[in-house]
């Protein structure tokens, strides 16, 4: 039982289409992952702002927790949020470029 030449050509022509969409799908997944992380950090920052100023803040380091000044913790979270926002912007540009290729 052998496949006809037409069937083989159709299968070969469809394969590259799927391979071309793969980078676009990967970038969309990365965007959604980074956006989810950014939202979690944003919620954490909002929660920290609602807590009283005299409450001790702790940061997980390996298997232990270290006390960290409130300003330092907020600064680190804001820096992470900015970095993720920049990553999302660059991934969106990359995604648009990949979509234009198809």
Helix content: over 70%
Largest sheet: 2 strands, antiparallel
Number of helical segments with 4 or more residues = 2
Rounded radius of gyration (Å): 23 Å
What gross morphology would you assign? Answer: elongated
Number of strands: 2
Strand percent estimate: 5-15%
The ordered H/E elements are HEEH
Kindly name the structural category: mainly alpha
Distance between the termini: 35 Å
Mean pLDDT: 84
Strand line-up of the largest beta sheet: 1-2
- Indicate the low-confidence ranges by residue numbers: none
Account of the protein in words:
- By secondary structure, the protein is mostly helical.
- The protein has 2 helices and 2 strands.
- It has helices at about 5-50, 70-100, and strands at about 55-60, 65-70.
- Strands 1-2 form a two-stranded antiparallel sheet.
- Helix 1 (about 5-50) packs antiparallel against helix 2.
- The longest helix has about 45 residues, at about 5-50.
Write the layout of secondary structure elements.
Elements lengths: L4 H46 L6 E5 L2 E5 L1 H32 L1
Antiparallel strand pairs: 1-2
Helix pairs in contact: 1-2
Please outline what is shown here:
It contains two helices and two strands; from the N terminus they run H-E-E-H. It has helices at about 5-50, 70-100, and strands spanning about 55-60, 65-70. It has a two-stranded antiparallel sheet.
Give me some keywords for this one.
single chain; 102 residues; mainly alpha; two-stranded antiparallel sheet; 2 helices; 2 strands; elongated
């Amino acid at each position: 039982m052998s496949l006809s030449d037409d069937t083989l050509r159709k299968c070969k022509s469809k394969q590259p289409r799927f391979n071309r969409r793969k980078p676009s799908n990967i970038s969309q997944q990365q965007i959604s992952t980074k956006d989810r992380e950014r939202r979690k950090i944003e919620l954490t920052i909002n929660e920290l702002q609602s807590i009283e100023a005299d409450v001790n803040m702790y940061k997980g380091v390996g298997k232990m927790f270290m006390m960290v000044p409130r300003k330092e913790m907020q600064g680190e979270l804001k820096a992470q949020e900015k970095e993720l926002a920049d990553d999302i912007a660059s991934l969106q540009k990359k995604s648009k470029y990949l979509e234009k290729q198809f």
